[in-house]
């Protein structure tokens, strides 16, 4: 008997040791990188049709000269330069500004899982809505990493989109912050606001990401003091004050498609109760949609237009919730770009939860009603002059880096925006929001050469934004073969055992992730 027990323990120990060795080896296994293309001092695009995203006109058969990373000449006649220049034949093609995704979440694995797909889909700029606290996180990235990525882009030593504005970690009150973090991150009272703003100013952050459960008093102090530090507020509208108050206090952008529905129904004040707003929302979604007050909604939209408050509806998140029970939606070919860890630990639960809710009701589900109502409100807001920005909320369930931005542009046109307005939401509008219109957003002399070369005109059909033949990023040309390579690179990385181990361990080790899931 003792021999059997001893044998059992030896075998068990050996198996455990083997598992530990395999996991440790996978975690430490070097990860391949993808190299950017060769850069040229001069690049010419000949005979290309330039899409003017200001007027909606197409200027035909233009020659564009790019020197290093900037456009230096646009002409109707042939541009002659030295033989070592790169020549791109744009005959019959359409040149647009590189697209921007104004709501993403990057992490320590974005170099392999997100960046190649952004560029392969013509997204040359992103606004990351994540951040860190006072210590480097094993999962989320902060301003230090993103600013280094930007430097590497300028030096052409890394495949990465441009990170346009730097975010703080999400400020959501005490429960969203690990216990051992400095107390000022918890924002338990307004007296901690200066310490928070001083910290993030030193971290070279551009805005404070505000979230849902900030107290009204603390939010007011943040809004009033942030401009003194050269910062602004962006993110969710905190639940415990009105949208009108948040707009008047100067929040610069509001995220997601529910912001007007939260405000414009008879019992809206019930959502501002700190103790039970989540429970009330869960049981009242149908009422929130069905009793929407369009007069009140238009008044708030008019206020946003007057105060120059931007809206990023991220319709992809509501689209997922509305369609989680439909196999033609969930059987997405782009799942090959997602790690098994994320699909199993995050997306599967999210999908099953929303699927169950949708199938509980007969006919059209409440989630489908929410999605359709949000699109109607996008149409209203656009007519009222609210500046709308395209964003997708990567890495939420069934939101795919790169690909989903084109779906967002399509849904914006389904919501009443013209093809031109949808294109503007990912080019000139976010460039203005970011105060970087002098460098980006349109195709003009002196601007950065972040450009997409399309085979079809997106002004005729917004889905033509997907007909990408080549990308110029900081003046460096990614041809069609390189773009195919980028997609294959991420597909291989996402399916590899060692990348899945790395993602799992980084999630497990992140105190920020643990707090988020606990909340």
TrEMBL record:
The chain crosses the membrane at residues 7-29. Keywords: Membrane, Transmembrane, Transmembrane helix. Gene3D superfamilies: Amidohydrolase, Urease, subunit C, domain 1. SUPFAM superfamilies: Composite domain of metallo-dependent hydrolases, Metallo-dependent hydrolases. It comes from the Bacteria. Residues 355-475 form the Amidohydrolase-related domain. The keyword Transmembrane helix applies. PANTHER family: ALPHA-D-RIBOSE 1-METHYLPHOSPHONATE 5-TRIPHOSPHATE DIPHOSPHATASE. This is Amidohydrolase-related domain-containing protein.
């Amino acid at each position: 008997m003792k021999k059997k027990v001893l044998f059992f323990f030896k075998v068990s120990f050996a198996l455990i040791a083997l598992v530990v060795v395999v996991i440790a080896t996978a975690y430490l296994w070097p990860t391949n990188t993808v190299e950017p293309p060769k850069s040229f001092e001069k690049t010419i695009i000949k005979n290309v049709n330039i899409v003017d995203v200001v007027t909606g006109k197409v200027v035909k058969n233009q020659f564009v000269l790019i020197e290093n990373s900037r456009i230096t000449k646009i002409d109707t006649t042939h541009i002659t330069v030295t033989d070592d220049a790169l020549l791109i034949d744009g005959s019959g093609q359409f040149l647009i500004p590189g697209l921007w995704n104004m709501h993403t979440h990057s992490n320590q694995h974005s170099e392999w899982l997100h960046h190649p797909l952004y560029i392969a889909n013509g997204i040359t700029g992103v606004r990351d809505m994540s951040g860190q606290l006072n210590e480097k996180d094993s999962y989320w990235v902060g301003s230090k990493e993103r600013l280094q990525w930007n430097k590497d882009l300028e030096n052409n030593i890394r495949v990465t989109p441009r990170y346009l504005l730097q975010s703080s970690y999400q400020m959501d009150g005490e429960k969203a912050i690990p216990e051992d973090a400095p107390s000022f991150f918890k924002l338990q009272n307004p007296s901690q606001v200066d310490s928070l703003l001083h910290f993030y100013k030193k971290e070279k952050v551009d805005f404070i990401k505000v979230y849902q459960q900030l107290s009204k008093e603390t939010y007011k102090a943040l809004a009033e003091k942030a401009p003194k530090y050269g910062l602004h507020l962006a993110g969710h509208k905190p639940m415990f004050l009105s949208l009108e108050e948040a707009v008047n206090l100067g929040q610069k952008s509001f995220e997601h498609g529910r912001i007007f529905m939260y405000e414009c129904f008879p019992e809206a004040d019930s959502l501002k109760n700190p103790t039970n707003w989540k429970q009330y929302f869960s049981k009242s979604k149908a009422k929130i949609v069905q009793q929407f007050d369009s007069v009140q909604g238009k008044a708030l939209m008019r206020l946003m237009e007057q105060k120059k408050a931007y809206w990023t509806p991220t319709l992809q998140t509501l689209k997922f919730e509305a369609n989680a029970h439909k196999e033609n939606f969930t059987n997405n070919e782009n799942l090959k770009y997602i790690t098994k860890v994320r699909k199993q630990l995050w997306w599967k639960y999210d999908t099953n939860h929303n699927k169950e809710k949708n199938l509980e009701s007969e006919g059209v589900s409440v989630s489908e009603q929410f999605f359709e109502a949000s699109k109607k409100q996008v149409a209203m807001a656009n007519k009222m002059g609210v500046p709308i920005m395209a964003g997708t909320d990567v890495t939420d369930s069934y939101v795919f880096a790169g690909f989903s931005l084109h779906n967002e542009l399509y849904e914006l046109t389904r919501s009443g925006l013209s093809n031109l307005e949808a294109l503007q939401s990912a080019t000139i509008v976010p460039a203005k929001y970011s105060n970087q219109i002098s460098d980006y957003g349109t195709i003009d002399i002196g601007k950065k050469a972040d450009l997409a070369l399309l085979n079809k005109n997106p002004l005729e059909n917004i889905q033509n934004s997907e007909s990408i033949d080549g990308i110029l990023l900081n003046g460096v040309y990614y041809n069609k073969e390189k773009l195919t390579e980028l997609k294959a690179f991420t597909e291989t990385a996402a399916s590899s055992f060692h990348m899945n181990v790395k993602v799992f361990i980084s999630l497990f080790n992140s105190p920020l992730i643990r707090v988020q899931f606990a909340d």
